[in-house]
């Protein structure tokens, strides 16, 4: 399991049926002189990636319009649930900014077109599995954090209402 975060890599807790799986999502975002820029993924639907790139550009003001974007999930797993949205945003922003996400953390939440982070189902299952595997922090929607604040131990819950807030939590400025 990846505990030390690399630029553009995050762990998301996804649920297959009733089984939680922690999956490493990787993104590579690079400037390109070619028009149109290339966007590829075999792990996530391209329409979802394009939508999330538009949210990052419009709501967080990341200039991603001239960047190639490559996304994959370690192990070749296909991700098709909305709970992966926030993890995808963090992975792409991390690669673009060249900043590592918080170590020993998971990220999940659905992202709306206005940049809000929406609650997802089975949040307790996702967080408990991460805590069981040794993760120390969960970055999740505010509503899910409120529901879980008294029921989950051994893991810090950091809640976000917007993608911008989540990026600040996921990639804190480190003192030199």
Short note summarizing the structure:
This protein is α/β, with parallel strands linked by helices. It has 5 helices and 9 strands. It starts with 8 loop residues before the first strand and ends in a 6-residue tail after the last helix.
- Sheet with most strands: 4 strands, mixed
Q: Helical region count?
A: 5
The arrangement of helices and strands along the chain is EEEHEHEEEHEHEH
Query: Within the largest sheet, what's the order of strands?
Result: 1-2-4-3
Number of strands: 9
Uncertain segments: none
> What is the mean predicted local confidence, pLDDT?
93
Given the helix and strand composition, which structural class is it? Answer: alpha/beta
How much of the polypeptide forms β-strand, as a percent range?
Answer: 25-35%
Rg: 15 Å
Give the fraction of residues assigned to helices. 25-40%
**Globular, elongated, flat, extended or rod-shaped: what is the shape?**
globular
Oligomer type:
single chain
The span between the termini is 27 Å
Explain this structure:
With 176 residues, this protein is of the alpha/beta class. 30% of the residues lie in helices and 27% in strands. It contains five helices and nine strands. The strands form three sheets. It has a four-stranded mixed beta sheet. A three-stranded parallel beta sheet has the order 5-8-9, with helices on both faces. The two termini are 27 Å apart.
